[in-house]
Amino acid sequence: MRVVYNTDRIYLHGGIEKVMATKVNYFANHPNFEVYIVTTEQQNKLPCYFLDSKVKLIDLSINYNRNRSYFSIANLIRAIKHFFRQKRLYIQLQPDVIISPNYNFDHFWLPFIIPKKTKLIKELHSSRYQEPQQRKQKGFLNKCYWKLQDWIESKYHKVVVLNKDEALYRPGSNLLVLPNPVEPNENKAKLVSQKVIAAGRISPVKKYDHLIKAWKLVYEKQPEWELHIYGDAYGSALDELNILIDKLDLASVVQLLPSVDDLTHTMLDYSVFAMSSETECFPTVLLEALSVGLPIVSYDCPNGPKNIIKDHEDGLLVPERNIKLLAKSLNLLIKNDSLRKEMGTKAKENCKRFHTDQIMAQWVEALKSIKK
User: Looking at the DSSP assignment, which residues form a beta bridge with residue 199?
Assistant: First the structure.
């Protein structure tokens, strides 16, 4: 079976890119699959995550200008080029399945340019919990947009969501619930360092300002502990967080660090993983934390954490936007060595349900079924 992952670029760190690498490496080593990644703007850069040599890479060299609106004249011209290059390639490749894990211009035209035998799958990697309210907003254009969106998605053979709660937001009968996988990890964090880790892109949706404010409360009781946040900066968010750190006089114990290629290896040097996001669909970083036996403290935001963390077993779920309870939960694990290690052991055990072989076996069956 010839499977194509259709995306924009794979040279930046991100959850979609990490999960995609795990999946394509699995398919590449399966006797019944041939796998491609087709990008639009790889710009001759190396993938940020390891890809098996059997994975075939094709870049269409569209190179949208991301400093300008998608609807600028320059990008609309690129979109026309994108349309014709993509259509020509897929006629040539004749893939059995195309999987599209993010949104680009081609989201709207893919169902209409693929070969007749090709099946099309859309993966939804971000939470859609706000959609019900957005759909209720008044206005002719808003109604038209959602009708168009629903009609386009109905043309995909399957729309994959990552947990059962996200399925509630999607209309139509072509839904499939398949969680993200994580590679098994033989290593286990010792949970003895006086450090807490958080990781993810430095952007407002991650609410790192909440985590830093919570750390001010932690610092008052545990001044010897440190918080390290790993992630690439988006917009002005990094500068704003640095200002907040200085304002709260936390520069000696809070560090903002760049993304690393092997996050699970880095996690081994920490004792707790923290997440303060406003919304998460199914964050791979939580799976990675569990895989090395890190207990987790996370906001119970829509809708990913509660579908990964077993509250008071391998981590603590905190009511979202409650900074005081976030700090209290962090302090609980910091002070209680035995609880921290007990949760760490449970984390490694509970993570097995998301191991690559188990999740990818479901993908194989889903692809076989869709091709019947």
Answer: 230
pLDDT tens for each residue of 190-199: 999 999 999 9
How many residues belong to the chain?
Answer: 372
The pTM score is: 0.92
Among 312, 361, 300, smallest CA distance to 340 is for 312
According to CATH, the superfamily of the domain at 2-181+356-370 is Glycogen Phosphorylase B; (3.40.50.2000)
For residue 188, how many C-alpha atoms fall within 13 Å in the half-sphere facing its CB?
13
- Convert 127-151 to b/e letters by CB count within 10 Å (16 or more is b): bbbeeeeeeeeeeeeeeeeeeeeee
In angstroms, the CA 282 to CA 200 distance is 13
pLDDT in tens, 29-45: 999 999 999 999 999 99
Please give the mean pLDDT across all residues of the chain.
95
Per CATH, is 195-354 categorized as 3.30.365.10? no
User: How is 227-286 classified by DSSP, letter by letter?
Assistant: EEEE--B-TTHHHHHHHHHHHTT-TTTEEEE---S-HHHHHTT-SEEEE--S-BSS-HHH
Domain extents in the chain: 2-181+356-370, 195-354
Q: Name 213's Cβ contacts closer than 8 Å, sequence gap at least 6.
A: 244, 248, 323
Q: Which residue reads 């990552």 in tokens? A: 162
